[in-house]
Amino acid sequence: GDAIFISTPSQKKILIDGGGPEGGRSVVQFLNRNNVTSIDFMISTHAHPDHVSGLTYVLKDIKVINVIENGIDYKSPVDEEYDLFLQFKKLSRNETDQFYILKKGEGLKLKTEEIEFHVYHPNVDSPHLNDDSLITYLRYGKISFLFAADIGERGRTVIAENRFFPPVSVLKSPHHGDYVPADNFFLDYYKPDMAVISVGQNEQGRPDTECLDLYKRKEIKIFRTDVHGTIKIISDGEHYWTFLKNGQQYPNQ
């Protein structure tokens, strides 16, 4: 699943997805370990359990001020996962200060002197829930990030064709590193220097070999949570540094 935590220079806290049930417990432990007592913006990109289930654990344990989601339900065939989703819906509406549903084509933008933060629901004609994922763009100075959730073939095509955001420094790889034919066009527009693939053990064999090969051909540096564990990126607005769980540091870009 996915779970991305962002702390801005002014100490705003943003959480994009929370992983599955086990991931959610790990996210809460991480937040407690880092003395995070509240989340300013919680973003549920879509209702698949490997993204939303963990957010329920966060809502139970930590104060959340704003929740943003796409309003599209999904009934998991696994009872525990569906129960966690129902709890997420109840807690996000009743235990937070503000709740936003972004419909297709709608976005929410926050701009300060230091950052630009934009959450968007692509207007994609697709039968797949993944293509309704909320995507998030974050810019701090000269460094920018695109968190592409699980958008698929149509979603990647639309956000590249319509140039929703400028090219970025770092890409959170869509859908755990799967490959779709639109990837070449998508990457040619967004031109990331680095891609982070959020993935664990899975039956689909992700990340796809074609995805990894394409990143390598385009000289995009790859980091994977199944290989490197938790990945930490620090930026001063001019450069960024990547730190891995084993303490290894990669130089600024």
From TrEMBL:
Chain ranges passing through the membrane: none
Annotated ranges, domain Metallo-beta-lactamase: 1-201
InterPro entries: ComA-like_MBL, Competence_DNA_uptake, Metallo-B-lactamas, RibonucZ/Hydroxyglut_hydro
Coiled coil: none
SUPFAM superfamilies (UniProt xref): Metallo-hydrolase/oxidoreductase
Pfam families recorded: Lactamase_B
Protein name: Metallo-beta-lactamase domain-containing protein
Organism: marine sediment metagenome
